[in-house]
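Onboarding guide, step 5: your first structure request.
Type a short instruction followed by the sequence, for example:

Predict the 3D structure of this protein.
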Amino acid sequence: MLLHGSWSRLIGVITVLALVAGCSSKPQSQPNAQSNTATPSPSPPVSESSAPITKSNTNDETSQPTPEPDTPRDTPTQGTRTVEKCIVLMARVNDPDSPLNVRSSPKATTTENIVGQLKNGTYVDVKEEQNGWFRISGETPGWIAKNRTDKTCGEKTERVQFGRGQDSIEIRDRFVGGGTHSYRFNLAKGQKMTLTSGSNRGELLPAVISPSGKSLIADLEQPSSWTGTLPETGDYTLQFDSNFKGYEYTFEVKVR
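The system replies with C-alpha cells like these:
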C-alpha cells in the first residue's frame, strides 16, 4: 500500500513536468517577410550646422549709427536793382573838340546844317533822343551828338530787392542837371529801416514816402542817419530831387 502511493505521486510529478515542457516548446509566430504597405523611410537627422543662424546687429554695441544727411542751408545771395524808368532830362556839353556844333537835323555828313555852337560845361535841356543824337531846347535849339555830352538819368525809378540773408544795401548815383531819383522797396509793417548818408554833401538823406503817400522824415537836413518803424506794408519810396546842376549821393539802407 505504501509503495503504491509513492508510485502514484511520482507519476503525477512527471505528468506536470511534461505539460510544462510542451508549452515552452510551442513555436512563436513570425511576421511576414514582405508587407504590401510601403514603410516610409525615416527622415534624415537634421544637423545643427545645416541651418546657420544669422546674428542680428540690432543690439551690437560695436555697430555705428547711420549718419543723417546734412540739412541744406540757404545760401546768401546778392540783392538786385532793376531800373524801371530812365529818362535823360538835361546834359552837360563835354566835347574834346570844343565847341560842340548844334545842327538843324541829326546828321553830321555836312556843315550846311550847323546852326550854332556850345562851349564845354554848358547845360542843355534834352527833349528827345534819336539814333545817338539829343534834340535840345534853349537859346540855340537843334541837335547835338549824344556822345559829346555828360548825362545821367534825370527821371529814374529803380526797384531794389534784398538778397537772401541780406539786410542792407548801398546805393550810389548822381544827377546831371535837375530831376528825381526814386528807389522802391517792398517792405512789411513793423520792420525797422535805418538810413545812413555817405554823400559828399554831408548830411543828405532821401525822402521816405510810405505806400499811402505819407512822408516819414520831416526834415531831410538833419543828422546823417535816420531810423524809423514802418507803419504799413507795401512799396516804400526813397526819393532824391535835384533842382538844376545836380550832385552825387551815396547812402545805405538797412531793414530788419
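Each response can be followed by summary notes, for example: Confidence is low (pLDDT under 50) at residues 31-39, 46-51.
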